[in-house]
Amino acid sequence: MAEPIISIRNVSKYFGDFTALEDITIDIRPGEIFALLGPSGCGKSTLLRCIAGFETPSTGDILIDGKDMTEVPPNKRPVNMVFQSYAVFPHMSVEQNVAYGLKMDGMSKSEIAPKVAEALEQVKLGQFAKRMPDQLSGGQRQRVALARALVKRPRVLLLDEPLSALDAKLRDAMRLELVKLQQEVGVSFVMVTHDQSEALAMADRIAVMKDGRLRQLADPVTLYERPADAFVADFIGRVNLFDVTGRAPFTAKSLGALELPPGAEVPPVGDLVLAIRPEYIHLHPDTSGPIPAKLGDVGFQGDISVVEVTLSDGRAILVQVEHDETPALLALPLGAPVSISLDLTRASVLPVSDA
Amino acid sequence: MESFRSNIRVFLAFFAPSFGWLVLFFVAPLVIIFLYSFGENVSLTEVETTWTWRNYSRILEPEIATLFWRSLALSGMSTIVCLVIGYPIALVIATARGAWKPWLLLAIILPFWTNLLIRTYALLNILGNRGRVNSGLEWLWERGYAALDAIGLNATAIMGEDFEPIIFLGRWSGVIIGLVYVHLPFTVLPIYAALERLDRSYLEASLDLGASQWRTFRSVLIPMTMAGLVTAAIITFIPMLGSYLTPALLGRGQVDMIANVIERQFKGANDWPFGAAMSLFLLYVTFIILAIQAFASMRRRGADG
Ligand SMILES: Nc1ncnc2c1ncn2[C@@H]1O[C@H](COP(=O)(O)OP(=O)(O)OP(=O)(O)O)[C@@H](O)[C@H]1O
Ligand SMILES: [Mg+2]
């Protein structure tokens, strides 16, 4: 494994007696897209700002390329940032915005011009070079911010919610473009987002945070298949969580005894939940299955449908149904008796989040 | 709002009093002054409007033209000093912690709650030949003299026989200090407002791109608060131009500004028509300044949009 390009070592950050970050340790690898994912207020931006140098960690160190950054001011760090608001200077043209950082490096005009042109080409803004920022759309302004940061060839590009200010359609298109751009320039991206689908779609690795703490660091597939706790399972994708009691076999209200497959990993102590994703629950349009339920809303999504069913104790859960099976369900009245079966080989037993 | 505007009786009920007030105390005096400015003294107490331009042409006479230029120069220089001092003050307030801000703003506004005359007399006390500044300097001078003496140098040869007070009163310096002191809040508040509105991430972006603090100040902070700076300059400059008390007391009749001479026309010189013409001329100058600013900001917006 290559040397990490950024090492975050036991970083904590306190604002007064409020803990924004607690003992975070993360290594960022060269050339990867790394996502910091978590709900609002969990400290993602704070961590990113610590890397950029706008906040100083209360304890712990941040190393970039093996060098301790504690004493290095933001304008001397080999990283650049794309701000959530983009912060494209309104009094400078697109070109001047992109040239700004190079000018600060003391480059001559003749060196700057081709680099600016290339960077604008890269983000497909070539013909907008002379425009002022208020003549650009939100998406174009975001690309100016991208070009302005990338033209400096940073070791790492930091992006704070880069897509959140765009409308949904543009957001999806920009996901792919950002990934392509990253592959082109080969710079590591550290990206803050609170949108799990964005993180899953774009990132090589994801750090899930909550209340200033790192809950799990893994690649998207692992996060989805093997979440570390109920919070992560709930935050990533759709999941049904059931409180369980007893051990081997577990029992859950309204599901009865649960025979987990041999070899299933189970945390040794503490309160546990059973997590099972909607696609691993099978819905029978009649009462032939082992667990009785009542049919609720059928959320038709084209390729699949996400169906809500109510269990005998009144608890509503989500079940995913293939396209082929949807018409049979749509024919049934609301509240019709149906039944479900669980694929327990794909379920996991997890510690309750706030353990 | 719409129905309120279309109902003429409601409209009158609300606006008649303020409208009447405006006519009575603003428009009417202005019309009277306007008529005076085209008039001639026919007796000691009577002015007749003869539609002569003589009062206006007298403004172009060297003595009066000089007076106008002096007023413009004093106000211009004082405005620049106000901007140079006011910007850092506004910056400190805008970047202060939340709990501090109201108190710092209060400190800026506080002088408004004291009578201008009293504040100006206080300045006299500070700036006089035997005032606070000079006694402070004299104290330093004496220490310096004694120190030189003690190390065996000829103190008299280096520092002179006696302490020479710096003369402020009756000089431009005194009037400028007074004008700056009185008008500084007008400068600080618009700049502060502009800084408050500025999203801090612009400054962070500049630093992030490798700019130094100073460079960020010059290339991002100043240009992005330029509108606030222009507003500050204008609302500082215009009242300065019409200052009366400050040049009267601190200028000691030797650094007169327009208002001082206008006052003399209405009192000692008993030449109301000329005083009226000068007053209106001052008003025109003010309008021209405002028009230029409006035009410039329109052009700016035009260029951006
Ligand atoms: N300068 C500050 N002073 C005090 N508290 C702060 C400061 N900056 C951030 N915080 C607090 O730290 C916590 C984490 O903030 P941060 O901006 O990192 O959240 P976030 O994860 O980026 O959330 P969001 O998704 O809403 O942007 C928040 O509760 C916030 O109120
Ligand atoms: Mg944030």
Q: What does this protein structure show overall?
A:
The complex is a heterodimer of chains A (355) and B (305). In chain A, the strands form 4 sheets. In chain A, strands 6-7-8-3-9-10 form a 6-stranded mixed beta sheet, sandwiched between helices. A 5-stranded antiparallel beta sheet of chain A has the order 13-12-11-14-20. Chain A has a 5-stranded antiparallel beta sheet with strand order 15-19-16-17-18. Chain A contains 9 helices and 20 strands. Chain A has helices spanning 44-52, 94-104, 109-122, 138-150, 168-185, 196-202, 220-225, 230-235, 326-331, and strands at residues 6-15, 18-28, 33-37, 59-64, 67-68, 79-82, 156-160, 188-193, 205-210, 213-218, 240-245, 250-252, 256-258, 272-276, 281-284, 291-300, 304-311, 316-322, 337-342, 348-351. Chain B has helices at 2-6, 8-37, 54-59, 62-95, 101-109, 116-127, 132-150, 155-159, 172-197, 200-208, 213-224, 226-241, 245-250, 258-266, 272-304, and strands spanning 39-41, 47-49. Chain B has a two-stranded antiparallel sheet. In chain B, a hairpin with a 5-residue loop joins strand 1 (39-41) and strand 2 (47-49). In chain B, helix 2 crosses helix 15, helix 10 packs antiparallel against helix 11 and helix 14 (258-266) runs antiparallel to helix 15 (272-304). The relative contact order of chain B is 0.12. The A-B interface holds A 52, 54, 73-76, 80-81, 83-85, 87, 89-91, 100-101, 104-105, 132, 134-135, 148-149, 152 and B 199, 201-202, 204-212, 215, 219-220, 223-224, 226, 304-305. The complex binds adenosine-5'-triphosphate and magnesium ion. Residues 15, 18, 20, 38, 40-46, 194 of chain A line the site of adenosine-5'-triphosphate.
